[in-house]
Amino acid sequence: MIELRKADQRGVANHGWLHSRHTFSFGHYHDPKQQGFSDLLVINDDRVDPGQGFGTHPHRDMEIFSYVLEGALEHKDSMGTGSVIRPGDVQMMSAGTGVRHSEFNHSKTEAVHFLQIWIVPGVRGATPRYQQVHFSPDEKRGRLRLIASPRGADGSLAVHQDAQVYAGLFDGAEAATLDVGQDRYVYVHVARGKIELNGQRLGEGDGARVRNEERLTFAKGDDAEVLVFDLRAREVPAM
User: Fold this and answer.
1) What is the pLDDT of residues 9-55, one digit of tens each?
2) Are 205 and 45 in contact (CB under 8 A)?
3) pTM score > 0.85 for this model?
4) CB-based burial of residue 189 (10 Å sphere; 0-12 exposed, 13-18 middle, 19+ buried)?
5) Which residue segments constitute the domains of the chain, with CATH numbers given?
6) Strands across the sheet with 73-77, in order?
7) What is the rounded CA–CA span in Å between residue 214 and residue 186?
């Protein structure tokens, strides 16, 4: 079963310098029917004005990763990490016992567009850590490239949860399939463009909860970029 979540159904936050769309309940947006899916708690589609950003703030016991679509995002944290994240980069911060960080638009002239995603970890009180990996367009073109997994397989980021995350780019005749394991759920998010998922058309910002499907086929993309989350079969995160 594929349950669509259309882009215009998401929560909206407009803070002037920040324009955000929330797939799941976040901040002042609360929908009792949208409390995450499996261990996936947050997908925020954020656009930040030049030179603006999120000041230093704390997190703990959360797997937080950023996926930049346009522009450059500057990260600093209490672990001493400082980095700039650009398209193709995937950054993950495992907050564990506690970490403080800030995220700002690195540019003074251009906006930054990125997805911030939270996954609830399977362990509490882990040692905080920071990871950043670049995945070239060729690695994602016409296929689903593993970008996060429990043990960091195939050069992916290591996540403290039974979850695999894939990214793919599809245009024209390019297509890929994902065999879904028994007792697994999947969440699909279209970051840009349009694509067909098992024959259903999804547009930019659309998402889909997937239950009890043996195989997913991604095809007929129109400049599409997708993120795919292979998750445990549970309805909402355990907090």
Assistant:
1) 999 999 999 999 999 999 999 999 999 999 999 999 999 999 998 88
2) yes
3) yes
4) buried
5) 2-232 (2.60.120.10)
6) 53-59, 99-105, 73-77, 82-85
7) 11
